């Protein structure tokens, strides 16, 4: 299998972190330079007409796109350690937690960066600075809620590490790296402690 990624981008990082947590080996990584427009190359567009990463190319030539779909496939390929839930009940609650952080933290972080950082104008043109400011506010609202959640439990979905934590961590790191966002600097000590704890996991080094 081949995994098409781009360094320092959050969705591919979610997949590489998921792979690292699972201990899956043998997947070849193919890095694309988005700033150079390699995601618009006809050969890559033949794999994903939307021109987005990550893309997982299976051994039989079929292609999977979309982060969650790729992770679902990998979870089925190697069920343990389990990251998406054992049984329908746990799967539902983990999916709820993952979707919440994806829609309200991860998306806000991505939009804040894409529309607020001048280096990304090549990828997001036109940029809308007012939208970036609004998205920064949305991220902070969600971060305040997560801080309260993490005051009561160690992980986003409850008592154990799951895919929801990968999504949350990658969102926080994307905002941290390019927008210098630090939850602790805004009084969110539980969220900051959580981020720092997840950063110590070996999978967090998979970028």
From TrEMBL:
* Span of domain GST N-terminal: 1-82
Q: Where is the GST C-terminal domain?
A: 87-207
Which branch of life, at top level? Bacteria
| InterPro entries reported for this sequence | Glutathione-S-Trfase_C-like, Glutathione-S-Trfase_C_sf, Glutathione_S-Trfase, Glutathione_S-Trfase_N, Gtt2-like_N, Thioredoxin-like_sf
Name of the featured protein: Glutathione S-transferase family protein
Task: Give the organism, scientific name.
Answer: Janthinobacterium kumbetense
